[in-house]
Design a protein that fits this description.
This protein has 378 residues and is an alpha/beta fold. The chain has 13 helices and 12 strands. The strands form 2 sheets. A 7-stranded mixed sheet has the order 3-2-1-4-12-11-5, with helices on both faces. It has a 5-stranded mixed sheet with strand order 6-7-10-8-9, with helices on both faces.
Length: 378
């Protein structure tokens, strides 16, 4: 089965995307479906020494959703965008996942409207890998859901535990809820309720964890709402860049420092690789009926290659099947009535978040209702 790759999405598309997809096909034997302007894709394939083959297919699309474009407007006005065509390939069963470094809001909106939620999932969540002692910590939600209920955090924990175990091969993932202290009395009403529910589930739940536990290897999966998770993630990314910059300045300040760097350069290279987002590749959106891997907008070919690898691992691990089966073993009171309501609320959040400002030429997107059946992309 193909991995559908949005060849036109991202700051360095299509060059970096096509090269990364070709590398994934070459190194891992993963079949990729490059979606976008056929002429541009072929030109970039030729540049890297590739061509159409059984592992590298091309699906022509005439439109592009730009990085700064309103996702709601783009979905309605660009039905033949590379991103929308890629999602339709997954819906039709031609591909198992979509990988894109393009417009994140459009990714979320298309995943909800075209793929829909998995049975029993109320809110899809973004899971991202954070460097930690002896591996990674998997944080979710990293930005899809700003306001969450206890049930949502429980579902995030289940999805994160399954992803860590099935796609990342963590034998018995330790799961924690992010809070401002380890005591049961800490946290908010939402985290305290989720904490009590998670203690009753058959998983390795360790309880509350703090921000410092994201990197110390104490836990494998950390659950929080999308607002807190995104702030935590961006803070760590900023500090990693700051640290690398300070070390670079330190090692070039004097000749003695340059000598020290010469002696430590292998260790410094390892540290830089550990903190490099391109090593992780992409962040899966868990909970939709078909996988979506969100790559960073400035992804390099290496990052795209690794994002495709993550998608392939998730498919081979049967992550979605395991999520559905696990959620359906929970008591009825802990199951979402259907995937529709969560999708409607997430769509409303996306519309509100990406509503065009009044000083643009776009007409303001009205209110909070999700698209009607006629408005939804086909």
């Amino acid at each position: 089965m193909y991995i559908a790759v949005d060849a036109m999405g991202g700051d360095h598309a299509p060059q970096a995307v096509v090269e990364g997809a070709f590398l994934a096909a070459q190194e891992y034997g993963i079949a990729v479906l490059l979606v976008g302007d056929r002429e541009q894709i072929l030109r970039e394939l030729t540049r890297v020494g590739g061509k159409e083959s059984a592992l590298v297919a091309i699906r022509h699309a005439t439109e592009i959703i730009e990085m700064g474009e309103s996702p709601v407007a783009a979905l309605r006005r660009k039905p033949d965008s590379s991103l929308q065509v890629a999602f339709r390939a997954v819906k039709a069963g031609e591909a198992g996942a979509v990988v894109s470094a393009g417009n994140t809001g459009a990714m979320l909106a298309l995943a909800v409207t075209i793929l829909g939620n998995l049975s029993g999932v109320d809110r899809p969540a973004i899971v991202t890998a954070i460097p930690a002692q002896h591996g990674f910590t998997y944080l979710l939600d990293a930005g899809a859901n700003i306001d969450c209920k206890p049930l949502h955090l429980v579902q995030f924990a289940i999805m994160g535990e399954i992803y860590a175990r099935m796609a990342r091969e963590v034998p018995s993932p330790r799961v924690g809820v992010l809070s401002n202290g380890e005591e049961d009395s800490k946290g908010t009403d939402v985290t305290r309720a989720a904490h009590e529910m998670l203690k009753k589930l058959p998983m390795h739940y360790v309880g509350y964890v703090e921000g410092r536990d994201l990197n110390n290897g104490k836990v494998d999966v950390v659950v929080t709402d999308g607002f807190t998770g995104n702030v935590a993630l961006k803070t760590m990314e900023g500090f990693a860049s700051f640290l690398i910059g300070q070390l670079r300045t330190l090692f070039t300040a004097r000749w003695q420092n340059k000598l020290a760097y010469f002696l430590l350069r292998n260790s410094f290279t390892d540290l830089r690789a550990m903190l490099d987002p391109s090593e992780v590749g992409g962040a899966p959106l868990l909970g939709t009926d078909g996988l979506a891997i969100i790559a960073h907008g400035s992804s390099s070919p290496k990052a795209i290659k690794n994002a495709i690898r993550v998608a392939d691992q998730s498919i081979r691990g049967g992550v979605n099947r395991q999520i559905v089966e696990t959620l359906h073993t929970l008591p009825e009171t802990m199951l979402a009535p259907s995937g529709v309501r969560g999708g409607r609320r997430l769509w409303a959040q996306i519309k509100e978040r990406f509503r065009p400002s009044r000083d643009t030429h776009e007409h303001p997107t009205p209110a909070v209702e999700p698209p009607t059946e006629e408005e939804k992309p086909s």
